[in-house]
Amino acid sequence: MSFRVVRSSKFRHVYGQALKREQCYDNIRVSKSSWDSTFCAVNPKFLAIIVESAGGGAFIVLPHNKVGRIAADHPLVGGHKGPVLDIAWCPHNDNVIASGSEDCVVKVWQIPDGGLSRTLTEPVVDLVFHQRRVGLVLWHPSALNVLLTAGSDNQVVIWNVGTGEILLHIDSHPDIVYSACFNWDGSKLVTTCKDKKIRIYNPRNGELESEALCHEGSKATRAIFLRHGLIFTTGFNRSSERQYSLRAPDALSEPIVMVELDTSNGVMFPLYDPDTNLIYLCGKGDSVIRYFEVTPEPPFVHYINTFQTPDPQRGIGMMPKRGCDVTTCEIAKFYRLNNNGLCQVISMTVPRKSDLFQEDLYPDTLAEDAAITAEKWIMGEDADPVTFSLKDRVSIVQGGYVSNSGNKSLSVSKKANILNKAAVGTSKSASTATLGGGNHAADVGSSSGSATVSGITEKDLRDITDEIRKLKAIIVKHENRIRALEAAVRAQEDDTDAVATRNANNNANSNNDTKASDSNKKDTNDSSANDNGTSATAASDEA
């Protein structure tokens, strides 16, 4: 008698379920760009999708409750001069999103709570460096306001968005960078390139630590760091068969696992859940989502199941775990873009009978707070991302959630930080203040003893007040000048009207004189005719 041993896993029965069409987002003009991007980014507040737009690039931002058919004239985020290629929400501020475009500029935007009421064209900051299109934007997982961008100029740039300054510039790639990913604490950076190689860098000094051949095929490859340090890649072999592999950072050239999946042209995007160690493979043009579990025992990458849909997908976005519904044991949620303008919502669920909070399914997950500032990170300090328990900090409301963190808004700072949160983490000492209508945490002042609010000192506030006063004076001056110009224009229009009236009167008088002259001529002619008739009659009588 033979026995078949079934691997034990709490995720073995995970299944996907598509929401009804009225609970999805319809009538969206998804971008038709050929760039290999997901075209979609999701966080617990908003859904962002890159769309077709005349006269430049744009993307649409929708609150999650705005389901159904989207109006054709819905406001967009449309400040780019070329098509938008990639977008990414800031993990530490649900209202901030970065976008890269063919116009070579990276823009960072602030989205108001509740969504857009009019088209947004003014970003918080423009990051200008790249000489060719920017196809990749990526936020640091634990450092505040650290953003990575990569373009077709083969350059990788790491920015401090709070100051708009470049922290690091990597120019050692010989060709286009396809993908990039930080490790769990952001101390390592993995990239894949068009030259078929995978590289690991120190993101603080740009030092190349290791490189190896990734996949033998010439099509686009992707690589991501897993939570415990391994690297997962997707790509193609020489026969255009799609592959995935698992590698150790210290042995990149010797994959632990290399598996041929199928034969297709679509690039595969690996979407990773660090809480469950599940990887979802979504291919561009595919109608399926395959999911795998990564474990320490062979074969290390275990196939679980496949979610099948009738329509091919053009792009996809994955909701962070703090946006999932824990009451239904939802462990992942995907927003899948179809070619017919539908954004389909797919819920991945573990079947459980109990309605209680399932602690084994929901370990501590990534929080909204940053663990370290950009300045400390670039100086060499590492910190794991801040985590929290969904049971403690998420309130369940009608199958959804309400985050306990306060609303965040942008604040203008002369120096350190454009974004609102100064230095946040698990061991912060902060006071709560209100600036510009937003509630946010503020660091207590430096050793000099001066209190700060979001990094703004009393002197800075006085300077800002003086600047506002000067601007008001300039505005009043311009308003007076505008009123004077308007009065001059009105006077000129009145003079023009008077001249036109006089000309009309003169023309009328001239016409009257002409008519009178014609009448007089007619009377004269009639009189002459009468005289001639009388003379003729007299002559006839004499005869």
From TrEMBL:
- SUPFAM superfamilies, per the entry: Putative isomerase YbhE
Q: Name one GO biological process term.
A: actin filament organization
Q: Name one Pfam family in it.
A: WD40_4
Q: Which residue numbers delimit the DUF1899 domain? A: 4-68
- Which InterPro entries has this protein been placed in? Coronin (IPR015505), DUF1899 (IPR015048), WD40/YVTN_repeat-like_dom_sf (IPR015943), WD40_repeat_CS (IPR019775), WD40_rpt (IPR001680)
Q: Which domain of life is it from?
A: Eukaryota
Cite the Gene3D superfamilies for this sequence: YVTN repeat-like/Quinoprotein amine dehydrogenase (2.130.10.10)
Q: GO molecular-function annotation terms?
A: actin filament binding
Where would one find coiled-coil regions in this protein? none
Q: Where is the composition biased (Low complexity)?
A: 441-453, 498-514
Query: Carries keyword Coiled coil?
Result: yes
Q: Which UniProt keywords apply?
A: Coiled coil, Repeat, WD repeat
Q: Which stretches are transmembrane?
A: none
Biased composition of type Polar residues is found at 533-543
Q: Where is the composition biased (Basic and acidic residues)?
A: 515-525
Record region (Disordered): 429-453, 489-543
Q: Where are the WD repeats?
A: 77-119, 127-169, 170-211
Q: Which family does it belong to?
A: Belongs to the WD repeat coronin family.
Name the chain's protein: Coronin
What species does this protein belong to? Answer: Lucilia cuprina (Green bottle fly)
What phylogenetic lineage does the species belong to? Eukaryota, Metazoa, Ecdysozoa, Arthropoda, Hexapoda
